[in-house]
Amino acid sequence: MGKGGEKGEESVECKTQICFYTWEEIQKHNLRTDKWLVIERKVYNVTKWANRHPGGQRVISHCAGEDATDAFQAFHINPTLVQKFLKPLLIGELAPGEPSQDRDKNSQLVEDFRTLRKTAEDMNLFRANPLFFSLYLAHIIAMEALAWLMVSYFGTGWITTLILACILATSQAQAGWLQHDFGHLSVFKKSSWNHIVHKFVIGHLKGASANWWNHRHFQHHAKPNIFKKDPDVNMLHVFVLGDTQPIEYGKKKLKYLPYNHQHEYFFLTRILLSFLIPHSHMLPDPNTFMHFLITPSRVPQATFFPAYGEELRKRYRESSSLSVLNLTARKLTPMGRFLESHWFVWVTQMNHIPMEIDCEKHKDWLSSQLAATCNIEQSFFNDWFTGHLNFQIEHHLFPTMPRHNFWKVKPLVKSLCAKYGVQYEEKSLGKAFVDIIGSLKKSGDLWLDAYLHK
């Protein structure tokens, strides 16, 4: 008998150069310096390769010691192509007597979900409609062009500036949803094309880093609402979330802020960030060729559309007294930031903050995504306003699926959830916003009770 792991490991059996491992052995390899994962019953040692993983080393590390089959299928639009990178990392297979799923997961639920995914593939629901995304990009550019025309013909009065702020905030919000599509590889058949356009949209229209977005957002999708794994719930002591973290903080007498008032200062933090930090929900990419147009007065342009920035620079040069650029930027930039920042935060948090937020529980893919995610009722406005993130459940289950097909797979998902008693939560847009505040208040009250009495 050969050894596939370290000497003395009785749970490893190698026959004819094929090593067989038990789940007990595999689950030990979930450390920073020792990472194994299982995909379709094959065992891979990704320890050294993790740093070269295109999606970032953290997202693959979060699946270490587990069955990563569903996560692997969810994130890759061509799993067969990716297999060539996995082949050199193969170290063995699950022992014949071991179940395909780890940690007592419901194997029938897992198999039924994979059947559902195969059904969606057969229905061509992972095929994008080029016309949909072309028109979507066109309506963003049209809004940017309209802003340029307005400042050219109507000047920079307060009424014009207010209208411009609304137009530009809308175009920026919609550009944010569009970059999200390309970032998830849900538009083109080839990953490289999606990556190229993603860098253009997020860099040119948003002024943010594609790499930063990828590394953060894929972690969120792999382990939504899981502390220490989902960066979106790492609030840096500003908020306490869920039911367990507030009690933990309270018992330890941690009081970085008065958390019992977090549902109130939630508004204040967004206002401060939107005024003090440009695009506060994103980090700037120093390599982006159109991040900010800086004028001699060191005031950044109010939009990433170059013609609009050029028009402002022209007016700056022609102005003899108070700079029109300064005046416009002082009025327009804070307004645009304020509107877009709130739009972004309320839409992205309404699906997750009111849901289960806790430590890792090692649930199957369907159950983990449904526990952390809810949907918002469908309507033309809701679809447009949220960039189809009102179908958050379907998006999390199938992140590479083009958003215009979510409504088609929704009945299949609801049927599967009903079969296994998995809660499928859907609510109105207004209730979703209210639930954010209610959830923050509930967590704050839990913290205060633990802080005072435990």
UniProtKB/TrEMBL annotation:
<keyword id="KW-0444">Lipid biosynthesis</keyword>
<dbReference type="Pfam" id="PF00173">
    <property type="entry name" value="Cyt-b5"/>
</dbReference>
<keyword id="KW-0443">Lipid metabolism</keyword>
<feature type="domain" description="Cytochrome b5 heme-binding">
    <location>
        <begin position="18"/>
        <end position="95"/>
    </location>
</feature>
<keyword id="KW-1133">Transmembrane helix</keyword>
<dbReference type="Pfam" id="PF00487">
    <property type="entry name" value="FA_desaturase"/>
</dbReference>
<dbReference type="GO" id="GO:0006636">
    <property type="term" value="P:unsaturated fatty acid biosynthetic process"/>
</dbReference>
<feature type="transmembrane region" description="Helical">
    <location>
        <begin position="131"/>
        <end position="151"/>
    </location>
</feature>
<protein>
    <submittedName>
        <fullName>FADS2 desaturase</fullName>
    </submittedName>
</protein>
<dbReference type="InterPro" id="IPR005804">
    <property type="entry name" value="FA_desaturase_dom"/>
</dbReference>
<dbReference type="InterPro" id="IPR012171">
    <property type="entry name" value="Fatty_acid_desaturase"/>
</dbReference>
<dbReference type="InterPro" id="IPR036400">
    <property type="entry name" value="Cyt_B5-like_heme/steroid_sf"/>
</dbReference>
<dbReference type="InterPro" id="IPR001199">
    <property type="entry name" value="Cyt_B5-like_heme/steroid-bd"/>
</dbReference>
<keyword id="KW-0276">Fatty acid metabolism</keyword>
<keyword id="KW-0812">Transmembrane</keyword>
<keyword id="KW-0472">Membrane</keyword>
<feature type="transmembrane region" description="Helical">
    <location>
        <begin position="157"/>
        <end position="178"/>
    </location>
</feature>
<comment type="pathway">
    <text>Lipid metabolism; polyunsaturated fatty acid biosynthesis.</text>
</comment>
<dbReference type="GO" id="GO:0016020">
    <property type="term" value="C:membrane"/>
</dbReference>
<dbReference type="GO" id="GO:0016717">
    <property type="term" value="F:oxidoreductase activity, acting on paired donors, with oxidation of a pair of donors resulting in the reduction of molecular oxygen to two molecules of water"/>
</dbReference>
<keyword id="KW-0275">Fatty acid biosynthesis</keyword>
<keyword id="KW-0560">Oxidoreductase</keyword>
<comment type="similarity">
    <text>Belongs to the fatty acid desaturase type 1 family.</text>
</comment>
